[in-house]
Amino acid sequence: MAGRIRAFDWSRTPLGPLADWPQSLRTAVGLLVAAPNPMVIMWGQDGVLIYNDGYARFAGRRHPELLGMKAREGWPEIADFNASNIRRGLAAEAWSLRDQQLTLDRAGAPEPVWLDLDYAPVPDESGKPAGLMVFVTETTERVAAERRQAETNERLEIALSAGRGVGTWDWDVATDRVVADARFAEIYGVDPALARDGAPISEFFAAMHPDDAGRVGEEVARTLKTHEPFRSEYRLVQPDGGIRWVAAEGRIISDDTGKAIRFPGVTFDITERRETDAALAETGTRYHTLFGSITSGFCIIQMKFDEAMRPVDYMIVEGNPAFEDMTGLRDANGKWVSEIAPGLEQHWFDLYGRVALTGEPVRFENPADIFGRWYDVEALRIGDPDAHRVAILFNNITGRKLFEARQAALIELDDAIASITDASEIGFIAARILGETLKASRVGYGIIDADSETIVIERDWTRDGAPSVAGVHSFRTYGSYVSDIIAGEPAVITDVETDPRTRDAPDALLAYGIRALLDVPVAENGRVVAQILVHASEPRAWTDGEITFVRSFAERTRAAMARRAAEQASSQTAEELQRLADSLPLLVSFVGTDLRYAFANKAYADWFDVDPRGLKGQRVQDVVGDAAWSVMGPVVRRALGGESFVSEQTVVYPRVGERHVRSEFVPRFDADGQVDGYYAMVQDISAEHANQLALIRSEAELRDSEARYRTLFDTMDEGFCIIEFFDGPHGPLSDYVHVEANAAYAENAGIPNVVGQKLREMVGAEAQEWVDLYGEVLRTGRPIRFEKELEETGRWLELAAFRVEPPSRKQVAVLFKDLTERRRAEVALRTSEAQFRAFSEAVPNHVWASRPNGDLYWFNNQVYAYTGLAEGGLDGPNGWAAIVHPEDLADAAQAWARALKTGELYQTEFRIRRADGAWRWFVVRAEPVRGADGEVTGWVGANIDIDDIRRQAAELEEVNGQLEILLAGSKAERDRLWTLSEDMLARADYAGGLVAVNPAWTRT
Prior knowledge:
Helix content: 25-40%
CATH superfamily of the largest domain: PAS domain
Shape: flat
CATH class of the largest domain: Alpha Beta
Radius of gyration: 44 Å
Number of strands: 41
CATH topology of the largest domain: Beta-Lactamase
Structural class: alpha+beta
């Protein structure tokens, strides 16, 4: 974000150009961009938004347009909320909001979110609040989890209070006394009186089947440890030897310290249900075998309706493994779609809701934009109609839909250009169809001159107001990707601002609204001659399928143009037709009604190892071979029947073997309108065909690639580790061990192989300081950011730490980087500044310093001694004007403004008032101080008193004037004056040497 902030045109905002920003805002922005957590600054009354990378991820689709916008305009859905907060911040108030619920549109639709928000006012140079710093932590997942837990607890409460004749019990854990009702006692074979007064739990476990006792004991122990709801089914042996199945459910009640004190619950007699389950076991086994093995997605859902019986949500009751694979929804059973797939289109709820209410099954094909997929779906109601349950069987048909859409586009292209003869019109129609299919912002077809690396685009198709790029363009103006084009490879650029081929100078592309591009070249005879260009106004990851599709479009468009050229040339001589056909990278021929060649182009030499000139009169079947003719023979007879068409076949040829070809046949009619033969154009599209077949495999491999990509996390430059606290000899949570660390840990901290190491064994004496810092993060959950020296290695580190949830994990994550070199540089800078101030105070001249904008902030003691002003009395952009002579002020200020604007040396002369009111002349000079990037970071100036020198010069000028008057007399008078003058007179040459002195020197 630092680069984006620097590049942004802030002059269009209330903040004005970046160079005019106050230092307070610059400092705040510097802190902001360095922070890893989401942070945003709202500056001024309008709350102009400046934010870091963390906030950019939080903002979702709103980024990057959000940068520089006013808060009301950037987040219109919470405009009043932000306006109120800005007023509070500008009133110097700091506050925090916890689990604040807002409704935000971050992904194309409003969604509820919960946030922890910390607000801090940011003062300007006057000390008054000028903006508001906001620290943003999203808590949506935690709040949702807490709500789900609350619902679970509520359902358990209902079950425990329902009664309905079921046995109930209450175990006092501390005293090991179980109090139960008579029904419970009867089921467990315990005296009801004893159960009423209380008995040890072992009394009740005595009737438990031996095969179940161990498991149930472990489940009880686990519930006591985790406080999770207790649910178990087991057998009880009755006094008559019979077996009763029971289901027990309970929960833990804790004291204020979290210690389990009571364990109440209920027990159900489920013997009848178990017997029914046994009867259904075989059926269930068959069902689940089918359920888990079918390749189609299958699930059972339960619809939710509002009071008006409008479908508003549905719960995934059960889904098979294929359901997870086809939707990407993991562990979805028992969850509402609104929780796991927020933003799912309403038409899904409407369709399933209608099935649940009417009982009428449906079959349909629909897209699910939230998943980016198409599904073929069958749905029918099952079970009790009042349960509103629907069974759904579906298949992912995304690949088929993409293929159909692209095939439809190719068919539309063939139909649209069938009767067009103008090449530029063919290119435009192809661009339109391709652009609409790919939803691009611009598509065009251009002719390439590989030698000059230029392209001529006669006409292009655009939408949404995108400007045309028609004209002549030099590829090098837009980056280095022309090398790919000339080599015959497509130029695939996801983002022109980050791709190494365009990122150094993206402005030329951005000026046309091009953020992503796909340029696919077309080659003839091994040389690139044309290309189709596809542009997007936003970053876009082009898929292999899209690249293959565009390549097919490019080749088909070029072939269509070539076909039109061939048709137009049919009226010319056979030699001209032959020359044209020879230039094409496909088989071109004319065959008479006798199925013998009239001519063939040079491509036949490559395919069949024959001289095309010798093919005239030969039968097609003899040239292409029997295997190929068995496929092509029935096809060509359609052309002889007067039909123009394009077809695709897999054909085996004698020399080149199996090829998948696209063949176009155009009949030729004589003067009587009778077919006298046909033109045939055969193109090898084996690679394209293979790409289509490999598309589904490529998509699966892409998912695997994305998983591998995440492993690159460990290559980050910053050190990262997770530490886990444990109780050590120094007390509870008095030490921690490194459970995870990336490769950069050792590079930044200087300690290798830290995983498994304990802190107190690693660093010794300084260990307690680190335990205290991270222990506070673990206890409070508040993240921290700080700088500290790791004494063990002598390195200064910048660190950020936050708790790993839940707190029971006792883990803290730490992100850090080595600041040692920066700290050394800061010490050197402070030393240099101290030396400068000492030197400035030691020199007799006036010395002063200014900020880049002309704001004077420091003067040495000689200035204050001369002017009589108190320290600080001259600070600011105009404080010095009070001591400059009014007659000199305008020129001095103008020269100073010019120096500030140009960054050139400032030098002038003006009078400065002394403490006693006297005015003295000074020569004033200031040099700019520049940073490593050449930018002016400040000014250092000095004032030198030249009043005496100016006065002496004036006096000398007066004497010279008098002398000129004397010299204007006669030479004799001059000689007399020379001799008689009581004043000593001298003559000097141009070099300053004395050449004569009058006699007065002998009388002095």
